[in-house]
Amino acid sequence: MATDGDNSSLLRDLWMPFFPPIALPPHVFQHLPIAATMPAAVVTRAPSLSLDDLLAGAAQTDCERACIAGALTMLERDWALFTPETKDYFAKLQRKYPRELHWIPRLSELDAALLAVRWETADAIFESEKRRQFDYLVTRGVDLAGATLNFGVRGALDTLISDVPKVLQALVLTRIDCDVAAISSIAPTVKPLLGERIRRRARAAFDEMLNAIGDINRNEPKLTGYGPFEEMRRELKARIAQVLDTPALLERPTTERIEALRKLEPAGDPTRSSTPAEEQRTRAERWQRAIQNHPFGAGVIVVMAVLATVGGGIAGFSGAIKSGRDLFWPAAASAPAASPNGDMPRKTPLDRTVALSDKS
């Protein structure tokens, strides 16, 4: 028979992949897949909606076993929806809890291939190029990171209307190039199935940058109703949609990106470009930005794409938030588009987070 200590340890391990490293406001917490498995008493007792406080609430209300049962039921029912990173986390956890997790299947060929992709290193290259381009725009009066337009710089408005769309389109292509380079060593049999994940990641990067333009609009009332600005945004969205719909998306030149990936690989560990502490800090910052930038509310769709990571024992996830309980899942990025979405009625997971949109 399991002891209280065993139950506490098991519950923490089961819940950990589904929680960000910050306390969540109630309107965000309710969309977590794990939230529906918790007795109301646990949520009521917890002083905040953080992992540690909810674990304490489960212990204080003698609900640990009920929470474990609910988590295991959800996990087995919706296994097909999880990212390869989350599946890998629980497959490794099976060694610690062989009785409770005996049913976990082996990773598919596609899942194994996705885990082998150096997403983090591709992210490092992309972020470096994005910073370089953003720094250039600051010299021209447009600060996308700070969401400000410096009218004191001559031609700042023209830069926003004319140059920013070119920079953002180039960065979307850079995002694609980095990811295509990252999958260059993956088996040819599964490589074509990674196209949708690459599209999602490119769309998530674009959406985040597009949100920065929206923030400038909110911070600069002069832009409201300004025809050229609104037309620029519409044309930019259409242009990026066309890029992402290109059938030959995965055939872009990759030689330069592959070389950049090799140069960025840390010695001794070709799969990691940051420490677990850095990954946790990055995840926390993405969640904080998501909660600050998006008004969660009933009937309002807010999508979060958190790049999935497995760092420091944490299984990351990518997913989406939608009104109701539908979409905040380690999205079915590991499955072809035609794969079933599991037992519960649910639409295809949306592509964009704070995301957020775990890292990796």
What does it look like?
This protein has 360 residues and is mostly helical. Among the domains are: 4-108, no CATH class; 119-264, no CATH class. The protein contains 13 helices and four strands. The protein has helices spanning 4-15, 26-29, 40-45, 51-60, 64-77, 84-93, 109-116, 119-139, 156-182, 195-219, 227-244, 255-264, 276-293; strands at residues 142-143, 148-149, 310-311, 314-315. The strands form two sheets. A two-stranded antiparallel sheet has the order 1-2. It has a two-stranded antiparallel sheet with strand order 3-4. Helix 1 (4-15) packs parallel to helix 5 and helix 9 packs parallel to helix 11 (227-244). The longest helix is centred in the middle third of the chain and has 27 residues, at 156-182. It is globular. It starts with a helix and ends in a 45-residue tail after the last strand.
Q: Which structural class should the secondary elements be placed in? A: mainly alpha
**In what range is the share of β-strand residues?**
under 5%
Morphology call: globular
Low-confidence stretches: 266-273, 295-360
Q: Give the biggest beta sheet.
A: 2 strands, antiparallel
Q: Which radius of gyration do the C-alpha atoms yield?
A: 21 Å
What level of helicity do the residues show? Answer: 40-55%
